[in-house]
Structures are given as C-alpha cells and as structure tokens.
Amino acid sequence: MHIAIVTIELATATHSSGGLASFSANLARIFRQYGHEVTILLVTTKEEQVEFDEDITVENIYVEKTLWDKFDSMAQIISTVLEKDQDEIRKLIVNIYKSEQVNKKINKINKERKIDIIHICNLNSLSVRLSGNIPYVVRMSCAESICDKASLPVEDSEDRSLSVKNRLQEYMLRSTKYIISPSNLVAESVKSITGVRPAVIESPYVLNKNAWDYSVYRMIYKGRKYIIHFGTLSYLKGSHIVAQIVKSILNKYSDVVMVLAGNSTDMIDIEGKKIKAHELIRKSAGEYADRVIYAGRLVREQLYPLIKGAEVCLLPSRVENLSNACIEAMALGKIVIATDGASFEQLIEDRISGFLCQKDNSDSFLQAVCEALDMSEQDRVKMWEKATERIRELAPDKLYPKYMAFYQKVIQEWGSRE
Description:
Helix 8 (239-252) links the parallel strand 8 (225-230) and strand 9. The model has no long low-confidence stretch (mean pLDDT 89). It is built from 14 helices and 15 strands. By secondary structure, it is an alpha/beta fold.
C-alpha cells in the first residue's frame, strides 16, 4: 500500500513539536516499518528544509513569498464586503490555496506511483480542493469552535456565530464520510455537527530512547526535585491554573522547583496587561520566582529527559484530543495530574494511574499536587506501573491493525461508490 500523509506539522530531531507533529511522524514510521510506501506532504506557510527518515519521502508544500501581497489584497476586499476580520479571511484564502497545491501534488505523485489512500492528519481546510478520485480519511484532532472558546482568559460557554474558517470546516466535516478521532470527546463533538460519530482509533505511540539529548536536563536538574508543566503554555492548556497554585506549592515544598517547557503565549495578568505565560507563572510565584525555570521550546529529544526526571507532570488543559503530552509522561512512568472531562479520562483512572481534577479549579489541582508529592514510594511505583500499562495499549503492534482495517474498509467502499 502507498499511503500519502498530509500534515501541517512533523516532528523531527531539529524541530520542536506538539501532538499533531508527533502523530504524523509516528504514523509514517509505523506504516513504513510494516512494509508500506509512505509519502509525507508537509504543508507549511514558508519553505522548510526537513530532515526525516531516508526511506520516507517528504514533500514540502508552502506559500511563495510573491503571493502574500496578492492574498492580503484579496482579504482586504472580501473582509470589507463580508464585514469580517481581514486576518481571518487571509488565513482562509491561504488554507484554500494550500489545499489546491496539495491536490496538484497528490495527482502528480499518483501518476508516478499509485497512491492507495490519503490520510489528512488534521482538517484545517486541507481537504476542500481534493478531487476525490483517491480515497481519503481525515483525522479530526479538535473541534475548532470548542478550542477557540477554551483559549480565552475566561472560557466562553455561550453559543456564538461561527467564524468563516469554522463554517468551512463544519461544511467539510458534513461532506467527509471517513473521519477518525483519537478521543471519544472529539468524536461526540463531531457527531453533534454531522450526525455521524467518527471511528475512534487512538493514536499510536513510539518511544525512541536512542537519541535523547540530556543537555537541558543537566542544566536544570542539579539534584533538585521538580514539577513540569509542558506543551504550549496557554489558557487552552491550563497555564493560568499553574500560575494560581505555583506560589502555594513552592511555599509548602521548599525543595521543589517548577519547570516550564514549550511555546509561551500571551496571557493577561491581574492588572489586565499582556504577559507571556511563563512570565505570568514566574510573577505569580512571588518571592519564590527564582524557583520557576523556563526551558523554552524543546525538541522531543531534549524534552523526554526532563519529563523522565520530574516528580509530577502538571497538565491542567481545558480540552484535549488524546493528549500526546499525557501519553509521553505516562509512557515514561510519570505521575500525571490532569483535567477530568477533557479527554484525559480516556487515559487516566483517577488515583490509580494518575490524578483527574476539576476543570479550572485551582484548589482541586493544588490538592492533587500535594497528594502526589506526599505519596509513599510504594504507592508511587504502583501508579507508575498502572500508567505504563495503559500506554502499552497504544503500541504500534496494537494499533497498526486497527488503522489498516479502517483503510481497507475505506478503499473497498470508495471503489464501490456510485
């Protein structure tokens, strides 16, 4: 089988990455490992020099610099007519353009080496221009409207008119028959839009211990105990909760340090001023600010040793798909403290393989952190064992047959369409 994997992110040894990038890399490597031909179409805003596995072809699809002025002019005209945000319209135009380029590239590759199936790793308007002559599936990693609301300082639960981008994505969802979701939570949100529940197939996980980079870990560790909060530091990922409890933690546990890793986004401080997430957490620590360490954005090879050495991994996200950060931490035998009802419950059994807390409830998270730090070594080991036991269910040999069976079903049904 020749599978074309379309993604906007790809984890490599030189690029820091999130869950989508790791999934794209893992999927490609697993199918190559099982003898399939794999081509990755990496769709980016600008040209990137990507070093990936030699036996997997990576095609970089990007927007030429000469087109940006044209897109800006088009966006200005359309936004004036529709009375919509110009930046939103520009992003929409760019995504449709990228989809057109994906379709052209796929058709070109298909003429040279027949493509059996296309796997679009995230919706992002990338399927809107596909011709439909090759079977394709879409992995729905998050309902954009839900994530948009959860990304605000105070989560917005009101129903508001959808953005142009979200309207297009919902239209594409309704017209896309074969959708995969790694989590039950996202599957239910897709069902509420389309009336059909996607196939739930969890994300395969591959832990490569051969090329870890311990340089950042050595600079930070220095014999100290630490809690780590990692991923994109944002409201969506619950960094405001970390800011609310950091001082109490560092006050109670004088031998503990708070480590932050990941892209730091804008948040709002108590005075209503914009401040980077890691700066807000450090500021909130008060007199203990020197025990808050920001490691910056790290590639996986640098991040894994930091996770492995932590006492606790703190992931208070408001909503997740199937959290790659949680999977990584549990695979490394770590105690994860995360949010109930945000998809973590699909991975964690509360107080058995980790801790589940109430969303946006700082007291709930503070209590769990204290429980975790006060656990006996025996109880800690039991929790580690349960965590790694759960993640073994995501091993390639467990999930490859599920993906393969789904692909074969799609190919068979696609060929029999009227």
